[in-house]
Amino acid sequence: MRLNTLKMGLVAILTAVPALALAHPGHEHASSFMTGFMHPMGGLDHLLAMLAIGLWAASLGGRALLAVPIAFVGAMLIGGGIAIAGMQVPFVEQGILLSVILMGALLVTTKRFPIVTCAAIAGLFAIFHGAAHGIEMPLSTHSAQYALGFAVATALLHIVGIGFGGAITRFQTPLATRLIGSVIGLTGVFLAIA
Fold first, then answer.
1. Is residue 141 domain-resident?
2. Is residue 19 included in any domain, yes or no?
3. Which of 10, 102, 153, 168 could form a disulfide with 37 if both were Cys (CB 3.0 to 4.6 A apart)?
4. pLDDT for residue 170
5. pTM, full prediction
C-alpha cells in the first residue's frame, strides 16, 4: 500500500513538472482543458493548499485518504460552477489564504476529527478555490473542459501531497509533517500580509 502511494506520488510529480514550466503568464494554451489544468499551478496559494490537503489526508490515513481529497475536488467543482454561472462567492481571496493558513495549522496539530468533519473542512475551503478558478476562466474557453482541467490538476496535486505524506509516515517522522505544516501556514500568513 505504501509503495503504491509513493508510486502514485511520483507519477503525479512527473506529470505535473512539464506543466509547471508553463505556469506563468504569457503562454497560450492549446485547449480549454489545459487552461483549466494550468490555473491551480499558477498560484502559490493554490499549490500550497492542494498539497496540504493531500498531506493532511495521508496523516489522517484510513478512509480519510480518499474522503478528504474527493470532498475537496467535488466542492471545488461546485464553487467553480457557481462562479462560472455568474453568482458571487464572498471573500474568495481571503478564503483561499485562510485555507492555506488553517491547513498548515491542521498539519501541525495532532488533533483528530471525524472523517465527515475533515471532509466538510476540505469542502468549505474548496468552494473558495473553485470560485477563484471560475472567476478567472477566460471567456474563450469551454467551461466543462476548463473545469475538468482544474479538477485533474487539483487531484494530481493531492496525490503528490499524499505521496509525500505516505513517505513521511513510512519513515515514521511525524515531526516532518509538522514542520511542513508550519512552513505552509507561515507562508499563508506572509501571503496574507504581503
1. yes
2. no
3. 153
4. 77
5. 0.82
Q: How many domains does the chain have?
A: 1
Express as a percent the part of the chain with pLDDT over 70: 85
In a domain? residue 43? yes
Q: SS3 string of the chain? A: CHHHHHHHHHHHHHHHHHHHHCCCCCCCCCCHHHHHHHHHHHCHHHHHHHHHHHHHHHHHCCCHHHHHHHHHHHHHHHHHHHHHCCCCCCCHHHHHHHHHHHHHHHHHCCCCCCHHHHHHHHHHHHHHHHHHHHHCCCCCCCHHHHHHHHHHHHHHHHHHHHHHHHHHHHCCCHHHHHHHHHHHHHHHHHHHHC
Distances (CA, A) of 123 to 5, 18, 44: 23, 28, 19
Enclosing domain of residue 99: 2-12+32-193
pLDDT tens across 34-48, in order? 999 998 888 899 999
